[in-house]
Amino acid sequence: MDRWSIGEQESALDLAVSALLEHDIPISASIRAQLAVASEMWGQREALEERIGRCRADGDVSALRLLALADAVPLTGASVSERPELADLLVVPWIRCAVCEQVLGRAHEREPWGGLSFLAARYVLFRPEAPAQAQVFGSTSVWEALTVLASCPGDQPAAHLRLSHPRTSASELDFRG
Ligand SMILES: [Zn+2]
What we know:
Elements: H1 8-22, H2 29-41, H3 45-54, E1 64-66, E2 75-76, H4 77-80, E3 90-97, E4 103-110, E5 116-126, E6 135-137, H5 142-150, H6 157-160
Antiparallel strand pairs: 1-3, 2-3, 3-4, 4-5, 5-6
Helix pairs in contact: 1-3, 2-3, 2-5
This protein binds zinc ion.
């Protein structure tokens, strides 16, 4: 990579991950997923993904799970979606929602030497058992894909805690004193 393309954001992300590891700072599962996606956006995923995976987990209850590299076995595009733009691509399962089992995958082109392209050509949200329902995102829309995954209706315990705010009727007010 041209060294001039390494901008301040990339350096900052590298430093941040190094600091998390050096000081053994626990991070939530959603922060880990966001770090992974940010590293992808800035072309740093291959350099950082192993270290991001090693950061200590803080035991939160977020449903997002960054899959271990060993579990990121590429699938054929045709097996995860019926969309024709994925037909010739290989989809690497990447971030999973533990509630609805939806997976955010990176869809890579296959290089002539058999490996995967450095950059993903598409991103796809899919459930392994429901290829017709997959959502495909463009190469610059990985953050949008993560946002959709993170908005899983099954991952909103706070919604149940939303305080109702009944209108206080005049009869409940006490002006005495
Ligand atoms: Zn979900």
